[in-house]
């Protein structure tokens, strides 16, 4: 299978997962979620969906729980839309890079403030 096909499927899964989470999940626990990336294996049997969650720690925990419960629904909906012989096995992973970059930004601002106050 070509790399181009894998990339197209990854992008398709990312778009569809975003739509499904935003418009079709009825679980009240699911808050603000951004699908940041999808990594599929070369044979397209498995795909990791990376999500970024917004909110308090409690809200993030509830959203994560709701997403885990919705994984079967997500897989079946993506499978219908992909129109492939089989649907990839999906796993969810937290993308904490936004949290990390936010933390770095705050540290840099604090350093600048400390230097300005000298």
Automatic annotation (TrEMBL):
Q: Which GO terms describe its biological process?
A: maturation of SSU-rRNA
Q: Which GO terms describe its molecular function?
A: ribosomal small subunit binding
A single Gene Ontology CC annotation of this entry is: cytosol
Q: Which Pfam families match?
A: RBFA
* SUPFAM superfamilies for this protein: Ribosome-binding factor A, RbfA
**Similarity comment:** Belongs to the RbfA family.
Matches recorded under PANTHER family: RIBOSOME-BINDING FACTOR A, CHLOROPLASTIC-RELATED
Q: What do we know about how this protein assembles, alone or with others?
A: Monomer. Binds 30S ribosomal subunits, but not 50S ribosomal subunits or 70S ribosomes.
Name listed for the protein in its UniProt record: Ribosome-binding factor A
The scientific name of the source species is Propionispora vibrioides
Query: Which gene name belongs to this protein?
Result: rbfA
């Amino acid at each position: 299978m070509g790399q181009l096909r894998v990339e197209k499927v990854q992008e398709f899964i990312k778009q569809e997962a975003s739509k499904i989470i935003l418009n079709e999940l009825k679980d009240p626990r699911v808050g603000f979620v951004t699908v940041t990336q999808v990594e599929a294996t070369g044979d397209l049997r498995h795909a990791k969906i990376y999500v970024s969650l917004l909110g308090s720690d409690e809200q993030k925990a509830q959203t994560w729980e709701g997403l885990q419960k919705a994984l079967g629904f997500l897989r079946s909906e993506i499978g219908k839309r992909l129109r492939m012989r089989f649907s990839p096995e999906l796993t969810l992973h937290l993308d904490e890079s936004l949290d990390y970059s936010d933390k770095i930004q705050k540290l840099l601002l604090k350093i600048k403030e400390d230097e300005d106050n000298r």
